[in-house]
Amino acid sequence: MQINKTKNAARNLAFGSIQKVVNIIMPFITRTAMLYFLGAEYLGLNSLFTSVLQVLNLAELGVGSAMIFSMYKPIAEDDNETICALMRLYKIYYRIIGIVILIAGVCITPFISHLIKQDVPQNINIYVLYLLNLGSTVLSYWLFAYKNCLLYAHQRNDIIDKTSTIVICTQQLVQWIVLFAFRNYYFYLLIVLIAQAAKNIINAIFVSKMYPQYEAKGDLPKEKIKDINQRVRDLFTAKVGGTVVNSADSIVISAFMGLTALAMYNNYYYIMNSVIMFVYMIFTAIGAGVGHSLVTASLDKNYKDFNTLTFIVSWICGFCISCFYSLYQPFMKIWVGEKLMFNNIVVMMFCAYFYLYIVCGIFSTYKDSAGIWHEDRYRPLIGAVVNLALNVMFVKTYGVYAILMSTIISYLIINIPWLIYNVFHLLFKVNPLKYLGRLFVYTCVSLVACYITSLCTRLILIEGLVGLILKLVVCIVISNLVMLICYFKNNELTNCIGIVKRIIKR
User: What angle do CA 412, 416, 417 make, to 5 degrees?
Assistant: First the structure.
């Protein structure tokens, strides 16, 4: 089957952008409503439950990624029989995963209270609330979730984005009404469960209509299953690493600092993660295209594309950290008030966290698309252990600084060096020094843009929403102008302009 990678990537970016905007704005309003109608403790409790369930999602083991990768070749070769057999195997795996998560989730229920320090909201049963969250997670695996792999493998992420947008909008609107009218957290979580079920069912209907030739039937050769299981095992450590970095931080803060501190941290993290969602939309949109290109195109062509991607993402990162550094605090002051704000040092650490996270995303996109999981299997685990150990050792003394610095250190000394080795020595088979020199220049340009932008925004003395908007305009203009001046004669900029022109012509 011929897949138009450029068209699909552009379409995925378009609909992905809409979905991400909805995923930011709607939950933001709901988060604000929860803060004012229920209190900061409920925000912290919500974050804790999310983190605990992310840990339980380790049961997924990376099955989804392994299955999608396994479909690239049979889709390119129109091997429908193999695709159907893969779907059947995926279906079996996901049903087992749902059962494992349910059992594990029920088993840890008695220990939930031990993960919360002091400020537990009154007149609620945290065990019932936790089980409602657990039910939503289990449903996400049991209700036709295996069919989504066809959409991802065919690079039709836009279908999932459309469904998510509709469901999320409906879900959030109902939740607003519940928070405003009833101020009831139980109803709030029940709506999440219903929405998850609806999303899975709608996606399954789309898949059945778009790909009627595919059914979950047939058997794979034992060697093929063995190969998939090997990929799953290799991806497990990646799941562990990602979970520790993204979830353990919240659990540690809740256990050692309390729900209010967790709510404060997650307010800042929410803003950063919202932007990360936008940037990662690029990686998601091109993921299947990169996988297809690695199979069909030359290594030189892929390396050129890799350099172009690095340039684009570096420019975006430079713009983002410029906005973060200048706008974080003014925005927080308007949104949650000074009582729920951290100092500027925390803002700088979030900027570093963001930058390193995105850089890892560049390498991970090619590493995952190339199926380099076995060689990468220990990296996430070691990075996670370092991160968690530093968290526990220093959180009592340094609080939120320890949480952020632990993550930054794990990226700098473990994740990035390891990913560089995997991508350059195992995939491209070239010396990475030239690339690293270029990446260093991109980083310096981003820092210069951030610094000059911050100097300009400090000249705006107007407070409140008007001041925030004016500072945003300055950030958009100045940061991009600085980078344009720095990159004016850069070959990658010329390549990017050419890509944009080709997309417009199509």
Answer: 95
Q: Which residue has the tokens 């979030």?
A: 350
CA distance linking residue 229 with residue 377, whole number of Å: 13
Q: How far apart are CA 456 and CA 128, in angstroms?
A: 51
Crossing angle of helices 249-257/400-410, nearest 10°?
160
Q: Which of 484, 459, 490, 493 is nearest to 473 (CA)?
A: 459
Radius of gyration for the alpha carbons in the chain, expressed in angstroms and rounded? 23
SS3 breakdown of the chain: % helix, strand, coil, rounded to 5? 85, 0, 15
| Helix (H/G/I), strand (E/B), else coil: 202 | helix
The predicted pLDDT at position 439 comes to: 94
In angstroms, the CA 473 to CA 323 distance is 10
- Render pLDDT for 135-144 as a digit per residue (tens, 0 to 9): 888 887 877 7
Burial category of 506 from C-beta neighbours within 10 Å (exposed 0-12, middle 13-18, buried 19 and up): exposed
The predicted model gives 452-473 an average pLDDT of: 94
The first and second tokens of residue 119, run together, are: 């400020």
Report how far residue 21's alpha carbon sits from residue 467's, in angstroms, rounded to the nearest whole number: 23
Confidence band of 391 (pLDDT split at 50, 70, 90) = very high
Alpha helices, H only, 143-183: 148-153, 157-181
The 3 state secondary structure assigned to 215-227 is CCCCCCCHHHHHH
Q: Which of 236, 245, 244, 251 is nearest to 60 (CA)?
A: 236
Q: List the structure tokens of 133.
A: 């969250």
Distance CA 246, CA 273 (A): 10
